[in-house]
Task: inverse folding
């Protein structure tokens, strides 16, 4: 599998969005 920066940045963006969503959910629970 060839490493491509565009795909990597998309994965990183999705991962950070998921982390942000989880943090927001925790904030809502507290």
Result:
């Amino acid at each position: 599998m060839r490493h491509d920066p565009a795909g990597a940045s998309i994965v990183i963006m999705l991962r950070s969005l998921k982390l942000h969503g989880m943090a927001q959910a925790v904030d809502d629970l507290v």
About this structure: The two ends are 42 Å apart (CA to CA). The CA atoms of residues 8 and 25 lie 26 Å apart.
